[in-house]
Amino acid sequence: MPAPAPTPVEESRPAFADFVATLKEQALAAGVSAATIDNALNGIEPLEVVVERDRSQAETVLTIDQYVQRRLTKTFVRTAVDKARENREDLAAIAKKYGVASSVLVAIWGMESNFGRFTGTRPTVQALTTLAWEGRRRAFFTAELIDALQILDKGYIELDQMKGSWAGAMGQTQFMPSSYLAHAQDYDGDGRRDIWKSLPDVFASIANYMVAYGWKGDQTWGREVKVPMGGAMKLATRVGFRQAGCRAERELTVPLSLARWQSLGVRTAAGKPLPKVDRTASLLRAGAKSYLVYGNYESLLGYNCAHAYALAVGLLSDRIN
């Protein structure tokens, strides 16, 4: 996986009570009701375990191949297939409405929360307040905290049920509060966007997120390919890399037509000619394998900007199918 981003500069840490008082003023200015603010922040204390987790994140040392192999075990793939079958009616309806394949929805769901088994146990408001106070990414976590208070204020979830990861990612979709407000869906029509317990809401929210990041229902994510002698890196260097986007996006080549890749000697994994479709693709070297990836792959990077994650989702969705 790509190396972690540079460690943000830590801001000075004020007294926690003073910091919470400032947060209350900011939330009130953002339109959150005083009742919600008091209910969520009165008497709150920092979670030291969150500070420890944030400061001791292990550097990722797995290669992409190792990550994919460890995640996509036979048991995990079998569970994904079973879950797709169990929920096929809801998934089919949601896939039709949003244009995101059922297999992709299940793959993301599985990667994010192990099919709803691991959604996090940390109180979201307390975790975000702690991270904002800690100071390494104060502006980011302060904004996420205010969004979390907005969610509570709108009645989408109760405070004692708003739980997630130590970093504030919530529910079976692992949305940050800002993503929740922008993309979460009330598909089951009960008046709540319940990404914690309602599977229809979970699937629809993932689908809506993917559409917002450019997913096209008539395209796949990509395919494994064979490259000419000399290897993928030599070919990628010849073609050139992207200059914008997240780190993973900048590790992709500039997009070329499939006809152009064909002329450069790229073939399918089976050694056959590439499909004759009017579509552009970028070359990705991932360990010992190479892939041509389309726009939908970039949508997966929008969910998590790491090739190991996006490839695992794509490959899992193929195996579900």
Question: Could you characterize what this model shows?
Answer:
The protein is α+β, with helices and mostly antiparallel strands and 321 residues long. It has a domain at 222-293. The chain is built from 16 helices and 7 strands. The strands form 2 sheets. A 5-stranded antiparallel β-sheet has the order 4-6-7-3-5. Helix 1 packs antiparallel against helix 2 (34-41). The longest helix is centred in the middle third of the chain and has 16 residues, at 138-153. It starts with 15 loop residues before the first helix and ends with a helix. The model has no long low-confidence stretch (mean pLDDT 93).
List the defining traits of the structure above.
321 residues, alpha+beta, five-stranded antiparallel sheet, two-stranded antiparallel ribbon, 16 helices, 7 strands, 51% helix, 8% strand
Distance between the termini: 26 Å
Number of helices, where a helix is a run of at least 4 consecutive DSSP H or I residues: 16
Strand order of the largest sheet: 4-6-7-3-5
Question: How can the largest sheet be summarized?
Answer: 5 strands, antiparallel
Shape: globular
Spans where pLDDT lies below 50 across 5 or more residues: none
Q: What's the gyration radius in Å?
A: 21 Å
Write down the secondary-structure element order: HHHHHHHEHHEHHEHHEHEEEHH
